Amino acid sequence: MSHSHGNASSANDPRQPSMAKPYTPRPVAPEDLPVDYSGFIAVILGVTGVMFRYKICSWLAIIFCAQSLANMRNLENDLKQISMAMMFAIMGLVTNYLGPNRPATKK
Amino acid sequence: MNPSVSIFSIALIAFLCLHHRVHGSSHFEGFDAEDDDVFDDSTELHHSLRPPLVTQSESTTLDLEPPSESDYTPTSKSDPPSQTASKKPSSISFDFWDEDEFEGLPEDDKTTDSPVISENTSPADPQTPDPESASDALDSAIPKKKPSYTVEIVCVSILIAYAINYFTGKRENENLALTWASKFGLKDTIFEKNFSLLGVGEGEDSPLLLKEATNVFKFYASGRRYCHGLLATMELKSRHDLISRLFNSVVPCKDEISFEVYMNDDAMDHIVFAMARKKAAKTMLKELRDLQRFGGLVPVPFGRKWVSEELAVISESKEVAGDMITEVVLDQVFGDKSFEKFGKNFLSLHFSDQHPGKHRKMLLFKFALPDAKHMDDMVRLVALIPYYIDLVGRYRLSSQARNKTEGARQKAAHEAYKELENVRQEALLRKKAERKKILEEAEAKLSAEALRKKEAKERARQMKKSMPKVKMSRGH
Question: Is residue A71 in some structural domain?
Fold first, then answer.
């Protein structure tokens, strides 16, 4: 640190308490936030899982839901998408495991 | 977790509705199919006596479903609904057949006795080739074939690993951020000596760090000469996220910390200066607008100590570059020898009085964060920050250089103004065109109406004209 106070004028205290301004968080527009790809993938996989009754899709949707949940920044904004994806994923799983075996899957 | 419970309940309700619908519809589907089957069987029977066997095997091996659901319908009146016929399709289907025509079949004696017995025997029925298709109808309690579990096991274990990794990774990131903060933000540390206010809150013991996401931390400092604030943003690896972690093991990335120093307007002269490794410098020159506009790569000057060969310097003029790269800096970090030792965590620095956005005069520093044990490695790098704040704050361009930069800035401002004007004009023109279009449309509508009216009038007149003539002709 000695190098930063090379000459005499900078040897005195650089601090100026009177100039201190408290931190004001910059407002971030929702569209500036990084895109939640995992949530998007989760929704798509969830819908595919329900529509075509692929249980692997529903499971992957749940995993991507977890990722999206872990990376969540803006609570209200992302929760909508996540809850939708989660609903689709769970619905897909429930229909898959508890639903009747339809003949359509055979043919 | 209230929302999750509600989500689950909604999903459950949705499933129940769906389930009922599907179940009901399958009834009818099966019923129709069964009718056809029976009809086919009977027609075949007319041809010969033996076919029953053939049809039997066909119905059981080729397609299990239609008979199963069809059987459900005839027996449903007598059987309670809990006795699902879909469990044992083949056996009950025999039951249905033998009443009609196939009494003489020797093999079916067991199965034709009664539906209850047939249900008991059917699991061991050799004629059901695919136990999975027969059993996974309604209750998941019936054990399935082994391979069908692999997906579930893998997925559930991934989820569990994800959850564990989330908590451990989160703690790892927090530890790293806290180590940094305690190294540089506590008493008798670099920031404490240079700034009067530390931390994101107000008051004496405000928290030093602001956690913006699981892997983003902010540190704020203020109250120093020449600048009105410093904001450090730590963007750590997504350690909490298993998927990105796996991805990062293929494509490695670093923990980064970037400092934004907001300079006072009167404390920073016309300076556009940046330094980074050669490759990064090229992309900076391409992508950052102020560098693109004002800066250029500075060649290595003769007869002067200069920065390490790995680094490239971008500046508006040689003068600024020469004044920003002082002996002290070369000695501490950027010289050939010291850069080898201390420069591995250096990413870039970028000073400009022309930053786009709210704060135009800003110093940006970007470093890589070492891991918690090697935090000392970046002491010299962080010490650059107050040094450069003082250097830039005190720095004044020579009048000659100032004229040049002044001209360039005026030109840029003029261009920006022009651009703005252009945009405004374009918007105005567009508005005008739109208004004109609307007017024209209205006019066209009006004129069409007028035309129609005119035509109607004309027609009426013609009618009037022709009427008397006819009358007259009649009168004659």
Answer: yes
Which residues, in sequence order, are CB contacts of B203 under 8 Å at separation 6+? Answer: none
The domain total for chain A is 1
Q: What is the pLDDT of residues B415-468, one digit of tens each?
A: 989 999 999 999 999 999 999 999 999 999 999 899 999 999 999 988 887 776
In a domain, residue A45? The reply is yes
- What does the pLDDT average to over A65-77? 80
Contacts of B311 (CB under 8 A, 6+ apart): B275, B276, B277, B278, B281, B334, B339, B343
Of B329, B362, B397, which one is at a domain's C-terminal end? B397
Do B128 and B175 sit in the same domain of this protein? Answer: no
B206 with B113, same domain: the answer is no
- Residue pointed to by tokens 């000469």: B225
Domain assignment present for residue B470? The answer is no
The residues of A whose Cβ lies within 8 A of any Cβ of B are: 1, 3-4, 6, 10, 14-23, 25, 38, 55-56, 59-60, 62-63, 66-67, 70-71, 73, 79, 83, 86-87, 90-91, 94-95, 97-103, 106
Name the token pair of B443.
Answer: 């006019």
* Chain A residues within 8 A of B23 when measuring between CB atoms: 100
Regarding whether B317 and B227 lie in a shared domain, the answer is yes
Mean pLDDT score, A8-35:
72
Banded pLDDT at B471 (limits 50, 70, 90): low
- Does one domain contain both B284 and B338? yes
With respect to residue A4, please indicate whether it lies within any of the assigned structural domains. Answer: no
C-alpha B280/C-alpha B311 separation (Å) is 9
**Domain, as residue range, for B231:** 156-397
Residue A49 lies in a domain: yes
- Pair B244, B319 in one domain: yes
Nearest chain B CA: its distance from A64 CA (Å): 9
Q: What ipTM was reported for this prediction?
A: 0.80
* Residue of B373, B388, B334 whose CA lies nearest to B194: B388
